[in-house]
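Q: How would the C-alpha coordinates look for this protein?
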Amino acid sequence: MTHHSQADILERIQSALHSARVIFRRFTPGEVDAEYKSGHDPVTEVDTAVDRVLRKELLRGDEGWLSEESVDDLDRLRRTRVWVVDPLDGTREFVAGIPEFSVSVAMVEHGRPIAGGICNPATEELFLGSLAGGFTYNGKPARASQRSDLRDAVILASRSETQRGEWKPFAHAPFQVRAVGSVAYKLARVAAGLADATFSLTPKHEWDVAAGAALVESAGGFVCTLDQQPLECNRRSPLLPGLVAGGRSLRNALQALLSSQVPATRREPGKGGNQAGRKPGR
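A: Here is the predicted structure in C-alpha coordinate form.
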Protein backbone atom coordinates (compact mmCIF):
# COMPACT_ATOMS: atom_id res chain seq x y z
CA MET A 1 0.00 0.00 0.00
CA THR A 2 1.32 3.45 -0.89
CA HIS A 3 1.88 6.25 1.61
CA HIS A 4 -1.07 8.10 0.03
CA SER A 5 -3.33 5.08 0.51
CA GLN A 6 -2.31 4.71 4.15
CA ALA A 7 -2.96 8.42 4.71
CA ASP A 8 -6.48 7.91 3.39
CA ILE A 9 -6.92 4.90 5.67
CA LEU A 10 -5.79 6.94 8.69
CA GLU A 11 -8.24 9.71 7.84
CA ARG A 12 -11.06 7.18 7.77
CA ILE A 13 -9.91 5.67 11.06
CA GLN A 14 -9.70 9.05 12.76
CA SER A 15 -13.16 10.04 11.53
CA ALA A 16 -14.65 6.71 12.67
CA LEU A 17 -13.06 7.01 16.11
CA HIS A 18 -14.48 10.52 16.46
CA SER A 19 -17.96 9.16 15.73
CA ALA A 20 -17.40 6.41 18.29
CA ARG A 21 -16.43 8.97 20.93
CA VAL A 22 -19.68 10.84 20.26
CA ILE A 23 -21.60 7.67 21.14
CA PHE A 24 -19.66 7.26 24.38
CA ARG A 25 -20.74 10.74 25.50
CA ARG A 26 -24.28 9.43 25.88
CA PHE A 27 -23.19 6.96 28.57
CA THR A 28 -21.58 7.16 32.00
CA PRO A 29 -18.94 4.50 32.73
CA GLY A 30 -19.93 2.54 35.82
CA GLU A 31 -23.62 3.23 35.21
CA VAL A 32 -24.21 1.00 32.19
CA ASP A 33 -26.24 -2.21 32.08
CA ALA A 34 -24.48 -5.27 30.68
CA GLU A 35 -25.59 -8.61 29.35
CA TYR A 36 -23.29 -11.61 29.25
CA LYS A 37 -22.21 -13.66 26.25
CA SER A 38 -20.99 -17.24 26.37
CA GLY A 39 -17.80 -17.36 28.39
CA HIS A 40 -19.17 -14.72 30.80
CA ASP A 41 -17.96 -11.81 28.67
CA PRO A 42 -20.06 -8.67 29.17
CA VAL A 43 -21.61 -6.75 26.29
CA THR A 44 -23.38 -3.40 26.48
CA GLU A 45 -25.49 -1.17 24.28
CA VAL A 46 -22.33 0.80 23.58
CA ASP A 47 -20.55 -2.23 22.07
CA THR A 48 -23.25 -2.75 19.47
CA ALA A 49 -23.85 0.96 18.74
CA VAL A 50 -20.14 1.60 18.14
CA ASP A 51 -19.87 -1.51 16.00
CA ARG A 52 -22.59 -0.18 13.71
CA VAL A 53 -21.02 3.26 13.30
CA LEU A 54 -17.54 1.85 12.67
CA ARG A 55 -18.84 -0.47 9.98
CA LYS A 56 -20.78 2.37 8.34
CA GLU A 57 -17.80 4.73 8.26
CA LEU A 58 -14.97 2.32 7.50
CA LEU A 59 -16.14 -0.44 5.18
CA ARG A 60 -15.84 0.22 1.45
CA GLY A 61 -15.63 -1.64 -1.84
CA ASP A 62 -14.12 -5.09 -1.59
CA GLU A 63 -12.73 -4.72 1.94
CA GLY A 64 -13.44 -7.44 4.50
CA TRP A 65 -14.73 -7.08 8.05
CA LEU A 66 -13.90 -8.82 11.35
CA SER A 67 -15.37 -7.44 14.56
CA GLU A 68 -15.99 -8.88 18.00
CA GLU A 69 -19.58 -7.66 17.79
CA SER A 70 -20.45 -8.78 14.25
CA VAL A 71 -21.35 -12.18 12.87
CA ASP A 72 -18.15 -13.49 11.30
CA ASP A 73 -18.48 -13.59 7.53
CA LEU A 74 -15.70 -15.86 6.29
CA ASP A 75 -15.88 -14.13 2.93
CA ARG A 76 -13.25 -11.88 4.52
CA LEU A 77 -10.70 -14.65 3.88
CA ARG A 78 -10.86 -13.81 0.16
CA ARG A 79 -10.13 -10.12 0.74
CA THR A 80 -6.73 -8.47 0.48
CA ARG A 81 -7.71 -5.72 2.90
CA VAL A 82 -9.73 -6.39 6.03
CA TRP A 83 -10.88 -4.15 8.86
CA VAL A 84 -10.31 -5.79 12.25
CA VAL A 85 -12.08 -3.89 15.02
CA ASP A 86 -13.11 -4.09 18.64
CA PRO A 87 -15.85 -1.53 19.32
CA LEU A 88 -15.19 -1.65 23.06
CA ASP A 89 -12.09 -3.37 24.36
CA GLY A 90 -12.19 -3.46 28.13
CA THR A 91 -15.95 -3.76 28.55
CA ARG A 92 -15.48 -5.01 32.13
CA GLU A 93 -13.59 -1.82 32.98
CA PHE A 94 -16.26 0.29 31.25
CA VAL A 95 -19.03 -1.39 33.24
CA ALA A 96 -17.03 -0.97 36.46
CA GLY A 97 -16.24 2.69 35.76
CA ILE A 98 -12.47 2.13 35.44
CA PRO A 99 -11.05 4.50 32.76
CA GLU A 100 -9.08 1.80 30.96
CA PHE A 101 -11.19 0.89 27.94
CA SER A 102 -10.82 1.72 24.28
CA VAL A 103 -12.08 1.54 20.72
CA SER A 104 -9.67 -0.36 18.49
CA VAL A 105 -9.54 -0.18 14.66
CA ALA A 106 -6.98 -1.83 12.36
CA MET A 107 -6.52 -2.14 8.63
CA VAL A 108 -4.98 -5.50 7.78
CA GLU A 109 -3.44 -6.06 4.35
CA HIS A 110 -2.30 -9.52 3.24
CA GLY A 111 -2.57 -10.61 6.87
CA ARG A 112 -0.42 -7.83 8.31
CA PRO A 113 -1.76 -4.90 10.37
CA ILE A 114 -0.52 -1.88 8.43
CA ALA A 115 -2.48 0.96 10.05
CA GLY A 116 -4.44 1.43 13.23
CA GLY A 117 -6.17 3.76 15.61
CA ILE A 118 -7.10 3.40 19.27
CA CYS A 119 -8.94 5.91 21.40
CA ASN A 120 -9.73 5.92 25.09
CA PRO A 121 -12.97 7.92 25.44
CA ALA A 122 -12.52 8.28 29.21
CA THR A 123 -9.08 9.90 29.05
CA GLU A 124 -9.55 11.49 25.60
CA GLU A 125 -6.36 9.89 24.32
CA LEU A 126 -5.98 9.21 20.60
CA PHE A 127 -3.29 6.93 19.17
CA LEU A 128 -2.88 6.77 15.37
CA GLY A 129 -0.28 5.20 13.15
CA SER A 130 0.67 3.45 9.93
CA LEU A 131 3.76 1.59 8.80
CA ALA A 132 4.30 4.14 6.05
CA GLY A 133 3.49 7.29 8.00
CA GLY A 134 4.70 6.76 11.56
CA PHE A 135 2.84 7.21 14.84
CA THR A 136 1.17 10.07 16.72
CA TYR A 137 -0.13 10.36 20.26
CA ASN A 138 -2.80 13.05 20.61
CA GLY A 139 -1.63 14.53 17.32
CA LYS A 140 2.08 14.67 18.15
CA PRO A 141 4.79 12.31 16.84
CA ALA A 142 5.89 9.73 19.39
CA ARG A 143 8.11 6.65 19.55
CA ALA A 144 8.17 3.33 21.36
CA SER A 145 10.62 2.88 24.22
CA GLN A 146 14.33 3.07 23.43
CA ARG A 147 15.25 1.17 26.59
CA SER A 148 17.63 -1.77 26.11
CA ASP A 149 17.55 -3.27 29.61
CA LEU A 150 14.60 -4.74 31.50
CA ARG A 151 15.89 -3.36 34.79
CA ASP A 152 13.42 -0.70 36.01
CA ALA A 153 11.37 -1.08 32.83
CA VAL A 154 7.58 -0.62 33.06
CA ILE A 155 5.71 -3.69 31.86
CA LEU A 156 1.94 -3.52 31.46
CA ALA A 157 0.07 -6.63 32.58
CA SER A 158 -3.48 -7.85 32.13
CA ARG A 159 -5.57 -7.02 35.17
CA SER A 160 -7.46 -10.31 34.89
CA GLU A 161 -4.25 -12.32 34.50
CA THR A 162 -2.74 -10.72 37.58
CA GLN A 163 -5.93 -11.31 39.56
CA ARG A 164 -5.76 -14.99 38.63
CA GLY A 165 -2.16 -15.12 39.86
CA GLU A 166 -0.64 -15.76 36.44
CA TRP A 167 2.01 -13.05 36.89
CA LYS A 168 3.39 -14.50 40.14
CA PRO A 169 6.51 -15.84 38.36
CA PHE A 170 7.47 -12.20 37.74
CA ALA A 171 7.00 -11.03 41.34
CA HIS A 172 10.75 -10.60 41.85
CA ALA A 173 11.66 -9.54 38.34
CA PRO A 174 13.80 -6.41 37.97
CA PHE A 175 11.02 -4.49 36.23
CA GLN A 176 7.84 -2.77 37.40
CA VAL A 177 4.56 -4.54 36.64
CA ARG A 178 1.45 -2.39 36.24
CA ALA A 179 -1.96 -4.00 35.75
CA VAL A 180 -4.06 -2.19 33.15
CA GLY A 181 -7.39 -3.06 31.51
CA SER A 182 -7.92 -3.36 27.74
CA VAL A 183 -5.31 -5.16 25.68
CA ALA A 184 -5.60 -2.54 22.95
CA TYR A 185 -5.03 0.31 25.41
CA LYS A 186 -1.91 -1.38 26.80
CA LEU A 187 -0.48 -1.79 23.31
CA ALA A 188 -1.28 1.83 22.48
CA ARG A 189 0.55 3.06 25.57
CA VAL A 190 3.56 0.94 24.66
CA ALA A 191 3.53 2.46 21.17
CA ALA A 192 3.52 5.95 22.69
CA GLY A 193 6.48 5.16 24.94
CA LEU A 194 4.33 5.51 28.07
CA ALA A 195 5.40 1.99 29.04
CA ASP A 196 8.29 -0.14 27.83
CA ALA A 197 6.52 -3.38 26.97
CA THR A 198 3.50 -5.58 27.50
CA PHE A 199 2.77 -9.26 27.07
CA SER A 200 -0.24 -11.48 27.43
CA LEU A 201 -0.01 -14.95 28.93
CA THR A 202 -3.37 -16.12 27.58
CA PRO A 203 -4.69 -16.29 24.01
CA LYS A 204 -6.23 -13.18 22.50
CA HIS A 205 -8.38 -12.54 19.47
CA GLU A 206 -7.26 -10.61 16.43
CA TRP A 207 -9.65 -7.77 17.24
CA ASP A 208 -7.94 -7.37 20.64
CA VAL A 209 -4.47 -6.82 19.22
CA ALA A 210 -4.44 -5.93 15.51
CA ALA A 211 -4.67 -2.15 15.91
CA GLY A 212 -2.23 -2.09 18.80
CA ALA A 213 0.24 -4.18 16.82
CA ALA A 214 0.06 -1.74 13.90
CA LEU A 215 0.68 1.16 16.29
CA VAL A 216 3.64 -0.44 18.07
CA GLU A 217 5.37 -1.25 14.77
CA SER A 218 4.53 2.21 13.39
CA ALA A 219 6.26 3.68 16.45
CA GLY A 220 9.43 1.63 15.90
CA GLY A 221 8.66 -1.17 18.34
CA PHE A 222 8.28 -4.91 17.82
CA VAL A 223 5.37 -7.33 18.04
CA CYS A 224 5.26 -11.13 17.98
CA THR A 225 3.10 -13.90 19.38
CA LEU A 226 3.94 -15.59 22.68
CA ASP A 227 5.46 -18.48 20.72
CA GLN A 228 7.79 -15.94 19.02
CA GLN A 229 6.09 -16.04 15.62
CA PRO A 230 5.15 -13.04 13.47
CA LEU A 231 1.61 -11.80 14.02
CA GLU A 232 -0.67 -12.92 11.21
CA CYS A 233 -4.27 -11.70 11.01
CA ASN A 234 -7.37 -12.50 8.98
CA ARG A 235 -7.11 -16.21 9.67
CA ARG A 236 -10.09 -18.56 9.69
CA SER A 237 -9.90 -18.75 13.49
CA PRO A 238 -9.21 -15.30 14.97
CA LEU A 239 -7.83 -16.77 18.22
CA LEU A 240 -4.09 -16.15 18.68
CA PRO A 241 -1.55 -17.26 21.25
CA GLY A 242 -0.61 -14.49 23.66
CA LEU A 243 1.17 -11.42 22.33
CA VAL A 244 4.49 -9.74 23.19
CA ALA A 245 5.20 -6.10 22.28
CA GLY A 246 7.69 -3.48 23.29
CA GLY A 247 10.60 -1.29 22.36
CA ARG A 248 12.71 -2.95 19.68
CA SER A 249 15.86 -3.10 21.83
CA LEU A 250 14.00 -5.13 24.48
CA ARG A 251 12.98 -7.94 22.14
CA ASN A 252 15.77 -10.40 22.96
CA ALA A 253 15.53 -9.78 26.70
CA LEU A 254 11.76 -10.25 26.72
CA GLN A 255 11.88 -13.42 24.67
CA ALA A 256 14.57 -14.88 26.93
CA LEU A 257 12.54 -13.97 30.01
CA LEU A 258 9.36 -15.55 28.68
CA SER A 259 11.16 -18.67 27.48
CA SER A 260 12.49 -19.23 30.99
CA GLN A 261 9.39 -18.27 32.98
CA VAL A 262 6.41 -19.33 30.86
CA PRO A 263 5.73 -23.06 30.38
CA ALA A 264 6.09 -24.23 26.78
CA THR A 265 2.44 -25.34 26.73
CA ARG A 266 1.39 -21.71 27.19
CA ARG A 267 3.63 -20.59 24.35
CA GLU A 268 2.14 -23.02 21.84
CA PRO A 269 -0.99 -22.13 19.86
CA GLY A 270 -4.11 -23.74 21.25
CA LYS A 271 -2.55 -24.64 24.62
CA GLY A 272 -2.79 -23.06 28.04
CA GLY A 273 -4.97 -20.26 29.36
CA ASN A 274 -8.53 -19.51 28.38
CA GLN A 275 -9.11 -21.07 24.98
CA ALA A 276 -12.74 -20.16 24.54
CA GLY A 277 -13.16 -18.78 21.05
CA ARG A 278 -16.20 -16.90 19.81
CA LYS A 279 -18.72 -19.05 17.98
CA PRO A 280 -19.85 -17.71 14.60
CA GLY A 281 -22.89 -15.54 15.19
CA ARG A 282 -22.20 -15.71 18.97
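The chain has a mean pLDDT of 90.

The first strand starts at residue 34 and ends at 36.

Upvote if useful.
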